[in-house]
Design goal:
Elements: E1 6-11, E2 14-23, E3 28-37, E4 40-45, E5 62-79, E6 84-101, E7 106-122, H1 127-130, E8 135-150, E9 154-166, E10 170-182, E11 186-189
Parallel strand pairs: 3-5, 4-5
Antiparallel strand pairs: 1-4, 2-3, 5-6, 6-7, 7-8, 8-9, 9-10, 10-11
Length: 192
């Protein structure tokens, strides 16, 4: 109950972080290693969140993560009154040289690798009749992503390999492409 309208429960099998130069006043952190293993977390969010009476100051935190791994873990997020659930199963995930800058905001990474992962998005029992996108499931996700950048003005994405199975009949055994997008243009290159 530390955060209003949010319940967090679950089990952390293994967690290890090695950080250097964490500066709460300057809002910066240099995390050399972050490892999470055999973890199952459920986050429940009330959709009736109270509005803050005082305006909060935007955060300018800048976080550098040099190496991170998540293995054999599951993260679920639910809004029970809306029957919405989002779920991610992580077989193996590795990330190198990630930068999160909340002041800009911008997000960048040198590499992201996922093996044996799955994702589900479900808007509840009646959503299939109302919207065909009310339930989406993707299994056996394998991804090799390099040199990626997101800012509010543009996104750069470099996918070296992508494979997944969608239970309703779509199977991608291997794809690669580079993409650049801004507010006016989507440019996809080297699609194979």
């Amino acid at each position: 109950n530390l955060i209003p309208d949010i319940m967090l429960q679950g089990e952390i099998g293994y967690f290890r972080a090695v950080a250097r130069n964490i500066d709460p006043i300057g809002e910066s952190a240099n995390i050399r290693q972050l490892h999470l293993d055999s973890t199952d977390i459920y986050i429940e969010i009330a959709d009736t969140a109270k509005k803050e009476k005082e305006e909060s100051t935007p955060s300018d935190w800048k976080i550098n993560l040099h190496h991170g791994t998540i293995n054999k873990s599951r993260i679920r997020v639910g809004i029970p009154s809306d029957t919405l659930t989002i779920e991610a199963g992580i077989g193996k995930l590795g990330i190198r040289e990630a930068i999160i800058d909340l002041g800009e905001p911008s997000y960048a990474l040198k590499s992201l690798n996922m093996n044996g992962c799955d994702a589900k998005y479900d808007q509840g029992r009646d959503s299939q009749r109302e919207r065909p996108t009310g339930h989406i499931a993707v299994n056996n996700i394998n991804l090799d992503c390099r040199e990626t950048l997101y800012t509010p003005d543009s996104t750069l994405l470099n996918i070296k390999d992508l494979a997944f199975v969608q239970p309703d009949g779509i199977t991608i055994t291997g794809a690669s492409f580079s993409a650049m997008a801004d507010r006016h243009l989507l440019d996809i290159k080297e699609l194979s």
